[in-house]
Amino acid sequence: MQLFREGKHGIAASKVVDSKGRRTARASAGPVFKGVCKQFSRSQGHGFITPENGTEDIFVHVSDIEGEYVPMEGDEVTYKICPIPPKNQKFQAVEVVLTNLAPHTKHETWSGQIIGS
User: Fold this and answer.
1) Segment holding 33, helix H or strand E
2) Are strands 65-66 and 23-25 parallel, antiparallel or unpaired?
3) Which residues neighbour 70 within 8 Å (Cβ) at sequence distance 6 or greater?
């Protein structure tokens, strides 16, 4: 079942849900947004992105981050958005890509290696 919804970000977000209401596909179509990692906790598996356009912070789950680095405060990112069930009134970032690592910050890879920038 495909659902379409006009969000407060001014776009029509779509998703595919299975019979239990779970997302089975991410936002494969739609605009790509830019933002900065506000906070991310590897141990908790989630964090927040501050959008470049000034809207409210966007939730991001560890499973939606692409690439080899764990996001750090100040990292520039691109992302798409997808509504959060069950009410679909808020959005989360998906297909998150780190585009510019924060300078003068040590970054960790998902395998645990520390890289200085």
Assistant:
1) strand 33-41
2) unpaired
3) 40, 42, 107, 108, 109, 110
Distance CA 37, CA 46 (A): 11
Report the pLDDT averaged over residues 12-38: 64
Q: Considering the domain delimited by 32-116, tell me its CATH architecture.
A: Beta Barrel (2.40)
Residues forming a β-bridge with 115: 107
Task: Name the residue with tokens 């590897």.
Answer: 42
Give φ, ψ of 56 to 5 degrees.
Answer: -65, 155
Domain boundaries, the chain: 32-116
pLDDT digits (tens, 9 = 90+) for 78-114: 999 999 888 888 999 999 999 999 999 999 999 999 9
Q: Could you tell me which of 74, 32, 26 has the C-alpha nearest to residue 53? A: 32
Candidates 107, 18, 27, 25; CA nearest to 69 is 107
Quote the CA–CA distance of 93 and 58 in Å, as a whole number. Answer: 6
- What is the three-class DSSP state of 112? coil
Does residue 54 register a pLDDT over 90? yes
